[in-house]
Amino acid sequence: MLGGDVSAYSVMEGNLEALRGVRFVVTLDADTILPPGSVSRLAGALAHPLNIAKFDENNGRVRSGYTIIQPRVEISPLTGSRSLFTQLYAGDTAIDIYSRAVSDVYQDLFGSGIFVGKGIYEVASFHRSLQGRTPENALLSHDLFEGVHGRTALASDIVLYEGFPSEYREYTRRWHRWVRGDWQLLPWLAAQAPGQNGTRLANRLSWLDRWKIIENFRRSLNPFSLVLLAAAGWFVLPGSPWVWTVLALAAPGAFVFTELVTGLA
Is the domain covering 6-206 a CATH 3.40.50 domain? Predict the structure, then answer.
């Protein structure tokens, strides 16, 4: 649910008063596995006094603390062996973003990680960070958008387990949704960002937040760039086309090689 009046976006059933005092919400996918104690550890981490979100009264931005805790997410061993496709790709950190949330350079260097959709958020501060910032029907994939507005911390010692597509077509459909959602964040790179009801607001995202959006753009162009490099090697670039083909294959192949070496070690 993104911002705005909740009654305009959802169907309400039963007595909602029991939900008024809810402080934390855990968001998961249907195939996410919660190890015992992981929810209480997430709640404890977000409730820690040092992690409580503090806002800048001038621009409404979260200046310290967090509204979201992102745990480490790994591929479930059960789904990782369902097919030849999952055996080849489920552990490839260059292909699946979920399995990359182990150590994050943004968290390590800048104290702010990336939200990938599985984690815990504090309702009041999270809602405040997005208030008026979410135009209707504009974002297909909103995890990164929520994370950069609400400020996310990576808790790499808390682990959740995630499923993985069992075959290539299923994976490409998921990849298409992600890429489409990533490119819908393009307007948030400008000085004026979209708001609710067609308004334009001063963009309060930092340059680091905008770089995270650009990095997703770059990642989405990797497959196209490799195919373009291979084609250019055969028809445009000088030298042996086989050399360019090997270079194009070496880019993703290097990650597979390091995965094999790590597995053997």
Answer: no
The number of beta carbons lying within 10 Å of the beta carbon of residue 249 is 13
pLDDT tops 90 at residue 94: no
Confidence of residue 40 (pLDDT cuts 50, 70, 90): very high
CA distance 209 to 204: 10
pLDDT tens digits along 1-37: 343 344 345 667 777 777 888 899 999 988 888 999 9
Q: Buried b vs exposed e over 175-214: b needs ≥16 C-beta within 10 Å? A: eeebbebbeebeebeeeebbbbeeeeeebbbeeebbebbe
Q: Give CATH 3.90.550 domain extents, the chain.
A: 6-206
Long-range CB contacts (< 8 A, 24+ apart) of 210-216? Answer: 212/106, 212/114, 212/144, 212/148, 213/144, 213/148, 213/182, 213/185, 213/186, 213/188, 213/189, 214/189, 216/144, 216/182, 216/185
Enter the tokens of residue 179. 């890429």
Residue owning tokens 């979260």: 62
